[in-house]
Design a protein that fits this description.
heterodimer; A: alpha/beta; Rossmann fold; two-stranded antiparallel ribbon; 6 helices; B: alpha+beta; Helicase, Ruva Protein, domain 3; Phosphoribosyl-aminoimidazole Synthetase, Chain A, domain 2; 60s Ribosomal Protein L30, Chain: A; 3 domains; seven-stranded mixed beta sheet; 27 helices; 33 strands; 34% helix
C-alpha cells in the first residue's frame, strides 16, 4: 500500500472546520489526524509533513482572534512549529488558522482585524494568484472560494509594508475587489520558504463542483475534472508539493 | 398573624439553611395561590390544591426544593398542559369537545402515518427530537424551540441561548446526535414602527430587537460551527411587544445509537458549564405573560450564553458516543438539573447529590442549584466502568465532568445536600399534573370581496417587492455562516450571482449517498381570519418547498411549533384549535408525520391601552430525504430559451396575501388547500425530477405568481416572457388573483424545450401549462394576457428594490 504523507490538524476549543478540512486532506491523499491541543506534544509532530490549522473560533476569539491559541500553542510546544518549518515541514492556516499563524509569527508581519463592514460576512469571493506558491500551483490565475469571517481584514504597520508584500510575492493571493478592507486586497500570505501559507477563504467548502452556488458553474480545468471544485486544487497542489519535496 | 403571612414572612427572610420545610397543609386556596405567586412558581390555585392533596396523602409537608421541582415539572413550558387540556370548542356555532389537542390531532394522526410507512420514523415524541431514516445506517432528526420571552427582554442573550438550547436538544437526542444545520424564524414589529406606536414603557423598538436577535444567533451558531441554512422573518405590528424567536437544529446519528435506557447501578454525570444563579425560573417565567415590570424583574430568568463551553461539551459527547460510552443522555434546558434528572430518573429513580455540583458562585441554596438553568450542561447516565475513559475524554476536550449521583431502581427521585435529604419524590406522581378545562370559540371572519382591477401591474409588483414580508433577507443571511461543515449544497442564497432567493436548503450528509432537505413555512396573516386555512397552507408550503428542492414526497417529516397569546381567552384558544385541526388534516393527507413539536403561550402584553396578543402563529418546519445529489433542484432560473411552466391551479381568493394587505382587503376569503390534489402533483413532479427533466423550480408563495417569476429571474441569467392566457385556474379568477393571489400548491418550473412533451405527458390531466420562456434577447420581466401587457419591467430595477428593502434598516 502506498505510504500517505501524514498531516496533523490542531484542534483548539472552538475550532469547528476540522472535520471538513480533514476530509479535504484525505481526499487529495494525506493521512490526517485531528489532535486536540490538550494532547499536543512536540513528539506528535515526528514524521509529519503538514501541520494544518483549520477555521473556527479558537477560545471564542473574544480577545484578538488567534491570540489565545497562540499563547497555548507556545506553552505546549514552544518553538516546535518554527523548527518543524525549518526542517522542511509545511503549515497551512485557513481562516482562524491564518489568524493563528499570523499571531505565531510564522507569516510576514500583519494583523487580521475586524472587517470594515463591522459584520460577519458569509459570501463567495473571486480571487487572483499573485505569485508562485506551492499551495496554489494547480489553480487557474483566477478562481472563486467562499469566505466567512468577521475579522479578515489584513492590515500591516504601514501601507508600504502591504505594497512590499505584493512586490515580493508574500501576498500570494488577493481578492479581485475590496471585500473586507484588506490592504492591497490581500487574501492570503506565504512566508519566504513558501512552505507556510495562510488564507481567509475556505477551500474545504468548495471541494466538489456541486458546492458552488450556481449549478451551472463550469470547471475551467475541463470536463475530465467534472467532479471537483476550486478548493480541491489548492489541497491537491499542497499534496504534490509535499510529496515531490521528499 | 395568619398562617400564610407567617409563611410569606419566613420565605421573605434570607434562608437560615440551605433548604426548608414549608407548612402548606392548613392553607386555603387563596393563600396557596399567594404562596405560588410569591415563590414565582406560576402554579394555579387548582395546581396548588392538588399539591396539597399529594402531601396530605404522604402525611408530610413539602420542602422548598420539592415545590420548585413540581412547579418546573408542571409548568406549561415543560408539560404542555394546554395541549393536553379538555376543551369545549365552538366553531361557527357548532359545538364539539376536544380531549387533548396533542393526543387527537398530533399524536394519533402521526401514529397512523407511522403505521402506513413502517421503518421510516425511528423515534418520535418521547425523545429530545424525532428521527427519520436516512439510509440503512444513518438517521436524521430535527427540533425547533421558541425563546420568545427572553428575546423580548434581552434580545441578544435571549436568542443566543435559544440557539444554544436547541443545539443541546440535538446533542441529547438518542445517545447524542451531531448538529448539522440550523434554522431561525423570527416575527418582529415592522422596522419602520414609530415610537408613538409603542404603548408601553421599556419595550424595545423592533429594530433593536431584530439586531440583537440576529447577532445573538450569529454569535452562538457561528461559533458552534453549525451552518444556519434556513429561515424566515415576519413583520407585523402585533409582534411589537411579543417578538417570536424560533430556533431549530437538525442532527445526524448512526441508527444504532438512537435507543437509550437508564438502568439501576448506572452513574449519573454532568458535563459542560458550571451552575449559577443565572436562569432561575426560566420555565415558569415563560409560562406567564409579559408586562412592563417584566423588563425589570425577570432579568435573572435570562441566561448568559457561552458557545465555546457548549462546543467543548459537544466534542466530548460525540467522541463519547462513538466510543459507545453513553447509555442515556439528555440536555439541561428549562428546569435545569431538576427536569433533566427528573426525565432521566422518572422510572428508574435515583439519588442526586448537590454537593458534587461545581458552582459559579458560593452560597447557593439547594433549590437554586437544582433548578438553575445555567447554560451548556448535559446530563448522562453511564456505566461505572466507563467513568475513567469518560474522564480522559473530558480532559482531552477540556470540559468539566462531575458525578451527580446514581440511578438505583427505586422509582424515587432523591436529592441530597450537605448530608441531608432535601427532596424525596415519587417520580410517577411528579408527572401527573391536573388536567385543565378550557373553553374555545371561533367564527370565520372572512367575506368575499371584489378584486381590484389591475391597471398598473408593474407598480403593484414593485410595491410588493419592497414589502417587508418579501424583501431579501440577504443582510441577515450573510451574518450567519451557512456553509461551515462544507455540506450546504443548496444554499439560502443562490443563482448565477449568489444572491437570489432559495426555497428549501439541501445538505449533503457525510457517510451517506442521500441528502437532507430542510424548509420552513409561517403565514400568521392567514390565521387572523382563517386559522384552519393557515394550518393547511403552512404544511403545504413546507412540503412543497422540500419537494421542489428534490426531496422524495413520500419521505418527509414535519414539526409543529405554536405560539399564541392568552389561552384563557376563548377566541384566541378557538383560533389555536382550528389551526391544529388544519395542520393535522394536511399532515394526514400528505402522509408527512409530526415527529416533534413545541408550544409557547402567554405571548401577550399589558400595554397602557390594554392587553395586546400576538395572532396564533404556527411554524411548520420540515426535513426530507433527497435520494441522490443529481435530484437537487434550485429555485433560480438557469438558462436562456428554457420553458417556464406552472403546476397547480390558481384560485380566486386573495385573502392572506401580501397584495390584499397592501390594498386593505384584510377580511378577504383565504384560499383553501386541495391536499389530495396537491400530493398527486408533487408525486408527478418528483417523477420528473428522477428523470432529470427539471432545471429549476420555485414555489409560489408570498407575492403570488408575479413575485415568484421575478425572484426566479433574479438569478440574472435571462429575462422572462410570460403569457397568462393558458394559466390553469378555478372559476372567476381575476387578473389580480392570477398575478398576486397566493393560492397554495403551485410551482413555477423551468424545463428544457426538448423535454416539454415528456413533462406534459407526466402531468396529463393535471393543472399544468407552459406559460412562456426565459428570454435571451432582453432582461425584463414581461407578463401579458393575450394582447394586454400586465407587467413589463427591467429585472435589475426590480431586483434592486427587493435587495435593498431590508438592507437600509439592518
Amino acid at each position: 500500500m502506498e505510504e500517505r504523507p501524514r498531516a496533523v490538524l490542531l484542534k483548539f476549543p472552538g475550532t469547528n472546520c476540522d472535520e471538513e478540512t480533514a476530509r479535504a486532506l484525505e481526499v487529495v491523499g494525506f493521512s490526517t489526524e485531528i489532535v486536540p491541543i490538550s494532547a499536543l506534544t512536540t513528539e506528535a509532530l515526528d514524521g509529519v509533513k503538514l501541520v494544518m490549522l483549520s477555521g473556527g473560533f479558537s477560545y471564542g476569539d473574544y480577545v484578538m482572534s488567534g491570540r489565545l491559541a497562540r499563547l497555548v500553542t507556545e506553552q505546549k510546544i514552544d518553538g516546535a512549529l518554527k523548527e518543524f518549518r525549518d526542517n522542511g515541514g509545511y503549515l497551512l492556516g485557513i481562516c482562524n488558522g491564518f489568524q493563528i499563524l499570523t499571531q505565531l509569527g510564522l507569516l510576514p508581519e500583519g494583523s487580521l482585524v475586524e472587517n470594515t463592514s463591522g459584520r460577519f460576512q458569509c459570501q463567495w469571493v473571486k480571487m487572483k494568484k499573485q505569485a508562485d506558491c506551492p499551495f496554489l500551483t494547480l489553480l487557474p490565475d483566477e478562481f472563486e472560494l467562499p469566505m466567512a469571517h468577521a475579522e479578515g481584514r489584513l492590515v500591516t504597520m504601514t501601507a508600504e509594508d502591504a505594497e512590499k508584500y505584493r512586490e515580493n510575492g508574500a501576498a500570494a493571493v488577493t481578492y479581485n475587489e475590496d471585500v473586507n478592507g484588506s490592504f492591497e486586497h490581500i487574501a492570503g500570505l506565504q512566508d519566504e520558504t513558501g512552505r507556510v501559507f495562510g488564507m481567509m477563504p475556505h477551500p474545504e467548502r468548495f471541494l466538489y463542483r456541486e458546492d458552488h452556488y450556481d449549478p451551472d458553474w463550469e470547471n475551467p480545468a475541463g470536463s475530465d475534472e467534472e467532479k471537483w471544485g476550486s478548493g480541491y486544487y489548492l489541497f491537491r497542489s499542497l499534496y504534490e508539493s509535499v510529496t515531490s519535496s521528499n | 398573624m395568619s398562617d400564610s403571612e407567617s409563611i410569606l414572612d419566613q420565605i421573605a427572610e434570607a434562608p437560615a439553611d440551605h433548604y426548608r420545610v414549608l407548612k402548606i397543609s392548613d392553607l386555603d386556596g387563596g393563600k396557596l395561590l399567594e404562596l405560588s405567586q410569591f415563590m414565582h412558581l406560576s402554579l394555579s390555585e387548582e395546581d396548588m390544591l392538588a399539591v396539597q392533596e399529594i402531601y396530605k396523602d404522604w402525611d408530610r409537608e413539602p420542602t422548598d426544593v420539592e415545590l420548585e421541582v413540581i412547579a418546573q415539572t408542571w409548568s406549561e413550558h415543560c408539560k404542555h398542559r394546554i395541549f393536553g387540556a379538555d376543551i369545549d370548542h365552538e366553531v361557527n356555532g357548532e359545538k364539539e369537545k376536544v380531549k387533548s389537542l396533542f393526543k387527537t390531532y398530533i399524536y394519533d394522526v402521526s401514529q397512523r402515518i407511522f403505521d402506513s410507512k413502517p421503518g421510516f420514523v425511528l423515534s418520535a415524541f418521547h425523545d429530545n427530537a424525532g428521527f427519520i431514516k436516512l439510509d440503512d445506517n444513518l438517521a436524521v432528526c430535527l427540533k425547533a424551540e421558541t425563546h420568545n420571552h427572553p428575546s423580548a427582554i434581552e434580545p441578544y442573550a435571549g436568542a443566543n441561548t435559544g440557539i444554544g438550547g436547541v443545539v443541546r436538544d440535538i446533542l441529547g437526542a438518542g445517545k447524542g446526535a451531531k448538529p448539522i444545520a440550523s434554522l431561525d424564524v423570527f416575527c418582529f414589529g415592522a422596522p419602520d414602527t414609530t415610537m408613538d406606536n409603542i404603548k408601553a414603557e421599556d419595550v424595545l423598538h423592533p429594530l433593536g430587537i431584530m439586531r440583537g436577535v440576529v447577532r445573538g444567533v450569529r454569535d452562538y451558531g457561528n461559533r458552534m460551527g453549525i451552518p444556519t441554512v434556513s429561515g424566515a422573518i415576519q413583520f407585523d405590528n402585533s409582534y411589537i411587544y411579543n417578538p417570536l424567536v424560533y430556533c431549530g437544529t437538525a442532527g445526524l446519528i448512526p441508527i444504532k445509537y438512537i435507543d437509550k435506557e437508564v438502568g439501576a447501578g448506572m452513574k449519573v454525570i454532568a458535563v459542560g458549564g458550571r451552575t449559577g444563579r443565572d436562569g432561575l425560573h426560566g420555565a415558569t417565567f415563560s409560562s406567564a405573560a409579559l408586562d412592563t415590570e417584566s423588563h425589570e424583574s425577570d432579568q435573572q430568568a435570562v441566561q448568559i450564553g457561552n458557545p465555546i463551553e457548549e462546543k467543548k461539551a459537544a466534542d466530548f459527547v460525540l467522541a463519547a458516543r462513538d466510543a459507545d460510552l453513553i447509555e442515556f443522555i439528555t440536555d439541561c434546558g428549562a428546569g435545569g438539573y431538576s427536569s433533566a434528572a427528573g426525565e432521566m430518573l422518572e422510572e428508574c429513580g435515583g439519588t442526586i447529590n448537590l454537593d458534587n455540583v461545581t458552582l459559579k458562585e458560593p452560597g447557593m441554596v439547594s433549590w437554586e442549584i437544582f433548578i438553575s438553568e445555567s447554560q451548556e450542561r448535559m446530563v448522562l447516565a453511564v456505566k461505572e466502568g466507563s467513568l475513567e475513559e469518560l474522564q480522559k475524554l473530558a480532559d482531552l476536550y477540556e470540559t468539566e465532568l462531575i458525578i451527580l449521583g446514581d440511578a438505583d431502581g427505586s422509582g424515587i427521585l432523591k436529592v441530597t445536600h450537605h448530608g441531608e435529604t432535601v427532596c424525596q419524590l415519587d417520580c410517577s406522581k411528579l408527572h401527573t399534573a391536573p388536567t385543565r378545562h378550557l373553553n374555545a370559540k371561533w367564527e370565520l371572519k372572512t367575506e368575499s370581496v371584489d378584486a381590484p382591477a389591475i391597471d398598473k401591474g408593474g407598480e403593484d409588483l414593485k410595491s410588493l417587492l419592497s414589502d417587508f414580508s418579501i424583501v431579501s433577507r440577504e443582510p441577515i443571511i450573510r451574518e450567519y455562516d451557512h456553509e461551515v461543515q462544507g455540506n450546504t449544497i443548496l444554499k439560502p442564497l443562490a443563482g448565477a450571482s449568489g444572491d437570489a432567493p432559495q426555497d428549501a436548503s439541501v445538505m449533503r450528509v457525510d457517510g451517506s449517498e442521500h441528502l437532507m432537505s430542510m424548509s420552513v413555512s409561517i403565514l400568521p396573516e392567514w390565521g387572523k381570519t382563517d386559522p384552519y386555512a393557515m394550518g393547511t397552507a403552512c404544511v403545504d408550503e413546507c412540503i412543497r418547498q422540500m419537494v421542489a428542492s428534490g426531496a422524495d414526497p413520500d419521505r418527509l417529516a414535519i414539526l409543529d411549533n405554536f405560539c399564541m397569546g392568552n389561552p384563557d381567552a376563548e377566541e384566541e384558544l378557538g383560533a389555536l384549535v382550528e389551526t391544529v385541526k388544519g395542520i393535522a388534516a394536511a399532515a394526514e393527507s400528505y402522509g408527512a408525520p409530526f415527529v416533534s413539536g413545541k408550544d409557547s403561550f402567554y405571548n401577550y402584553f399589558e400595554t397602557d391601552e390594554g392587553p395586546v396578543s400576538i395572532p396564533v402563529t404556527i411554524l411548520i418546519s420540515g426535513m426530507g430525504i433527497v435520494e441522490d445529489a443529481s435530484h437537487v433542484t434550485g429555485s433560480s432560473l438557469r438558462c436562456r430559451d428554457s420553458l417556464i411552466v406552472v403546476i397547480g391551479s390558481t384560485e380566486s381568493e386573495l385573502g392572506g396575501s401580501v397584495y390584499a394587505r397592501q390594498k386593505g382587503l384584510t377580511n378577504a376569503t383565504v384560499p383553501g388547500t386541495d391536499m389530495d390534489a396537491a400530493m398527486g402533483l408533487y408525486r408527478k413532479y418528483y417523477e420528473c425530477v428522477k428523470q432529470g427533466l427539471i432545471l429549476s423550480a420555485h414555489d409560489v408563495s408570498e407575492g403570488g405568481l408575479a413575485v415568484t417569476l421575478a425572484e426566479a429571474a433574479f438569478s440574472g441569467k435571462a429575462g422572462l416572457e410570460i403569457d397568462l392566457s393558458s394559466l390553469p385556474t378555478g372559476e372567476d379568477v381575476s387578473v389580480a388573483a392570477m398575478l398576486f393571489g397566493e393560492s397554495p400548491s403551485r410551482l413555477v418550473v423551468e424545463i428544457a424545450l426538448e423535454n416539454l412533451e415528456k413533462v406534459a405527458e407526466i402531468f396529463e390531466g393535471q393543472p399544468f401549462a407552459p406559460l412562456g420562456r426565459a428570454a435571451g434577447e432582453h432582461s425584463n420581466l414581461k407578463v401579458t394576457r393575450g394582447d394586454d401587457v400586465l407587467i413589463d419591467e427591467p429585472l435589475d430595477e426590480l431586483k434592486s428594490l427587493w435587495k435593498n428593502g431590508l438592507a437600509q434598516y439592518y
